[in-house]
Structure formats: structure tokens, C-alpha cells
């Protein structure tokens, strides 16, 4: 009897945290502000949830095994679809190629970024943490010759952003919350479509005072519907954050998720921080667009990895 109690005391403390994680993540709650950062690591928790299940089965604690199994399945159902592509794509005619990069307060290597631009041939480049100095280096390296149209909201420190494009771009009102400036513009595509582009970068929820700024910055992003829209950049959020779920539910699709790359980490780049990689950089495209390609690239001297998506535009029917 005493041995049985000790075995139970060993099993349940291993099972309960995973069950609690599955319940809180599934409910979209934020019990403490630290959860905003922790929930980003749900894919790792899902993988580790097999351990208490095997422990409970091995020790024949059937009640604990049932709870562990339910938690493990719930987490797997949440995470695993990101690893498999979605073959259901809308019909498309025109093409829109989108590149997004966080420059780490302007430190991202100019020559490497220009090489990525020339190789991938994007129609749109959404930049975060764009400083005036970084803008000057990029334009001196020929960025404006390749992408002559720009919404320039460069600023010192981490709050700057910008959008460069091959096609005409009309600026829209800036989203400014907590000092972070999310540039917006409407792209006039040769197909006839007008597509709103947002360079996304809400505050990072690093401490309690920043969580409200982060959530307000995500809520301020335009919902899908009406005009075609693409949101691209550093969301400081993964698909496990309920606010990302709200955006997707409005009518966007995540390019990485659709192409089976939803578990590819975009932050931190090697040697920046000693934490497991998470997927916080995204291209969200209107669900009327096809998503035909996605990739994650390396850029020296920044903590984020640039992301690239190839989108298909619907047939243009005029106004």
C-alpha cells in the first residue's frame, strides 16, 4: 500500500502539468502574463507529453494514463497539422511574392539581404526594426532600383518599419501602439488587384507592462474581408496564441502552415538566445489567395530568419 502511494505520487505530478497545458492552451486563457511567452513552446510540450503517458502505462496507473493520453492527443491535434501541407487551394492567376525580414534594430547584413532579394525576386519586401541608417545602406546597395516604391517608416531603435515594392504603393495610416510603428500600404498589382500590405511588428511581450501593448498591436491589425490583404512580418506570436487564431478566423491563412512548414522556427537565429526556436514570423494571406510556396532563410547579424511566401491571386473581375 505504501509503495503504491509513492508510485502514484511519482506519476501524477508528471501528468498534471501536461494536462493543464492542454486545457489552458485549448481554452485560449492567459492565467498569468508569463503564459504569453510560454505558450509559444507548445510544440515542444506536445512532443514531451509522450513521456508521462509512457510512465503511467509502465507503472500501470490507468487513471493517470487516460489523462495523459487525452492531454497528449489534444496537444498533437493542435500541433501536427502544421507539419502537413494543405492541398486545398483556390484557383489563381496572378502572382504575388512576399519577403519579410526583421533587421534587429537595423543590424541585419545589407549584402546578404540584397542577395536574398535578387535571388527570390519578391514583389514586396516588408521590413521590421528598420532604422534610417539601415535604410540608407539598403538603398545605397540598390534596393530602390529593384523595388522603387516605398512606405518608409524607419525609426531609431526597434520601432521602425517599411515596405518596398516593385509596383505602385499608396501609404495607409500607420498602426502605432506602444511606440511600435506597423507600416501599411496598398499595392497596385499589374493584374488589376489592389492589395493592402502590412509590415507587422507589435510589441514583444517580454514583461507584464508590454503584454497589453502586444495584444493591442495584434488586435489593431486589419481583419480579412473586402479588399485583399497580406500581413507579413514579426508577429511576436505563434499559432498557439489565441490572438493569432482570431486573425486566422477572420479569413486569413498562414503560409507556413498551409505549405507544411508551420513548425519551422524563425526565432531566435543561432547564437542569439539560448532558448528553443519558435515560429513567430508569418505571412498571413487572404483566404481567397492560393499559397504556392514558403521558405525560411538566414540573415547574418539579426535574431530573426527572413520568411518568403509565393501567393496566387484570384481572377480579377474589375470594379
From TrEMBL:
Record-annotated membrane-spanning stretches: 32-55, 62-80
Molecular function GO labels: endonuclease activity; hydrolase activity
Domain Endonuclease/exonuclease/phosphatase: 101-304
Entry keywords, A to Z: Endonuclease, Hydrolase, Membrane, Nuclease, Transmembrane, Transmembrane helix
Presence of keyword Hydrolase: yes
Cited Pfam families: Exo_endo_phos
Official protein name in the record: Endonuclease/exonuclease/phosphatase family metal-dependent hydrolase
Provenance organism: Streptosporangium lutulentum
